[in-house]
User: Fold these one by one.
Assistant:
Number 1:
Amino acid sequence: VTRTIVPTVKVVPKPEEVELDEETMTLDRDDADSQIDPASKNAVEMALQLADEAEEAGEEARVVALSMGPPFFEENLQDVVAMGADDAVLLSDRAFAGADTYPTSRVLAAGVESIGDVDLVLCGEESSDSSTGQVPPGLAAWLDAAQVTYVNEAALEDDHLRATRTITAGEETVRVPLPTVASVEYGVNEPRFPDFKRKRWADNEWELTVRDAEDLDVPDGALGLEGSFTEVAELQSIEGPDRSQEWIEGEPDEQAAELASVLAEEL
Amino acid sequence: MTETNDVWVYLQTDDGSVSNVSYEILGKAREIAAEIDTGVTGVLTGDPEALDGLADEAIARGADAVVSIEDDLLGAYRPETYTSVVEAAVDDGDPSMLLVPATNNGVDMAGRLAVRLDSGLNADVVRLEVDEDGNLVGGVPAFAGGILAMVRAEGRPQMSTVRPGVFEALEPDPLREGEATVREPDLSEGDVVTEVLDREIGERVDLPSADVVVCAGRGFDGDLDLAYDLVDDLDATLGVTRPLCDDGLVPRDRQVGSTGASLKADVAICAGISGSVYFTAGLDDVDTVVAVNTDPDEPIFEEADYCVEGDLFEVLPALLEELEGTEVVA
């Protein structure tokens, strides 16, 4: 058996570099550097660990990263390959732009199908820029696959995924048949650093597979902004409350005494 | 009549009771329904025993009708069974809006359901409105909560997942009347894909309902004993910044901020917290904010009513001593 594990990789603008134009209330991401979304990195790391475990158990495993976005994402996918992924596929077409979670999950599902015989898709639980968490279950719906979201621990066993997921006030352990789509909680592992030699190979010799709308055979009207079922009506800035910023001076015990009387008054 | 109520609320049940966020959404749904001149239907899913009495409770909390989808196979949440039975109910009832709690299981189901229904889905909204065409518009916080994207959903039903703790649940009115119907879905063992092996539910943390919150950050150097002592003395609830959850020090349901809980407390005491916007976005509705930090230039002080420049390991023990001398909490 060859296990095929596909981590999906979202590339996002660094949040601190995105500027809001207060006059037009639009976001300016043009000058922002991009990075792999932190939760996606956890998904990549989990994919690599599961592949390592499968190989130790005498199975073959390949990790193929999947992303959707403009051609310059190649650089980020080279990093993923340098971390240890065997290959990567970029779904790239102007027609994909402006997609909400509905067409995004549809295009990603078509991308998974184009890779073929995929056992496990691993996504980040939610991205740092839009944090909807809706793509992983949407992707599972398109693939008609089992799904396990908010996973903090996972193992492959006998054509199944056994995973522990976080739920309100607790966690549960489930076992689902492959193929499965799982979303990985942010921060559950320490993503490995790119390997220096692999990075050189990824940058110079490895070739990224790029697929466009025609390759994926998704109907025209179902893509991007046009295929989305949500639309941003407007952006509003949120003004926080004015705080009185009263300084409590003195030695710690004097500060504590004053704090205690403040609390007595406020409670 | 069930069929004529256009606003549906998915009522999430955990262990025999409806989660409070479901009632919060039910309360808000009443306003939405009034604007488009329709009623509110609550949707319950579970095994018949677990759902006993919950329909009446939902009616008392604002539902005009309740559809209880009952089957022994619905005892535990599973994405495949819950999605398919709710999908079938929506197909029959044809609501124009479906609101779902933005909890892990709510998002898990709503994300799958939206694709099956070809519906627009707004995620994790903190505001809900209806535009002049009667479309559902949800306010989605973006970029650390400094911006609210007002997003219009299309399709039928228009869907939103709604953040817990944002809207107010109505006080139960036992005299409210509504129509309760039971649906028995066509489920068999063969429809079950997810095997639930183990489930552990701990203490439920309800940060948005807490009157007093002690917020701890990295300044505690991983040792939260002082924070817990203060929590005990003030009968408060512990909240933390995201890094403490990421480090596994406390569960994620204690996280305050744009990707965690929004507080509505009378008082929040923030110690050892620098005050990134990701965290302070959760303080906007707090009446009084107290901050303790060694560095007076940290941004947390801009978000505080009372500012204490000092070492929390000196100030908090002194405060504990003060509090033990005087009974602050009635």
Number 2:
Amino acid sequence: MATPTLGPLEITVLLAVARLGDEAHGLAVRADVSERTKHDYSVGAIYTTLQRLEDKALVSSRLTEPLPVRGGRSRREFKITAAGRRAVVQAQRTAASVWDGVAPLRSPKPA
Amino acid sequence: MTQPPRLAERLLDGLSGSTAFSEGVIGDLAEEHARRVARDGDGSAWRWYHREALRSAPHIVGDAMRSFRRADLRVIATGVLAAWGVVVVVALADRATGSTVSHGLRFVLRLAGVESDIFFAAAIHSLLVVLLGGAGAARFSSRMPILSSTAFGLTAACSYIPLVDTGEPVAFVLAYAAGSLIAAAVGGVFLVSLSRPRSRAYPPTVGIGTLG
């Protein structure tokens, strides 16, 4: 089966889900992604990306029992699927291939 | 437990299509708000919640649009029809009593120091009726209340288009139509702010995938 094309945020979120394992719920994914990218993504943006990944069958999700800390709402937990793992490996290969042969670059000195 | 800002939370709830997506987003906002209250205090957590609710609202609306089903169209149509029912009943009652409400409104405006003719009072009256209709539309379509009241507002706005043919200035008709749209949405928002958040009544455990 062909691996679906992933955008930069999709790859970042997918990697966060893989990294967090059983702790991969919306807030944890958002904290992980925001810390690594140094960008404050909104809760909605992270969920939209997670939803896209689920639509592409790269992650699966389930709702937990309602929790008092969430005002009686359930927490949505995510898990990477086998197709998701394949997509990560494919993205890693593509990145390695793109970077192959490029000498380490230095940041240009400020003018 | 510290409750998140009530109005903002219920507005998000009212905008959503009551899906697992909105359940996740609104729940995450509540959880993070509680954490921030403990860490940074009420004021900072309150500001964070509103900023984050504003940033997440387009995503919640987007999800409601994506999860829109044919059955939702029926729900919204029911809300719009119910709202028009409210409008017609109020209009008939007003006519039967010789425009009592418009005259009463004119009197109230005069008490407030605003001199107005009966036409202006009637315009305010009709906007209030549309606001009431917006609340009615939200009441009768609980899955998408704000969308329903906005849809009703749109039909109310369109109903003013024929006024152009009667020689009314286009700017007046447009302002009146926009006022109706806003009034209906405000009516829906008002009703949602009074009602119980729907997503808390969400089924306790709904498997929407496999966590294997």
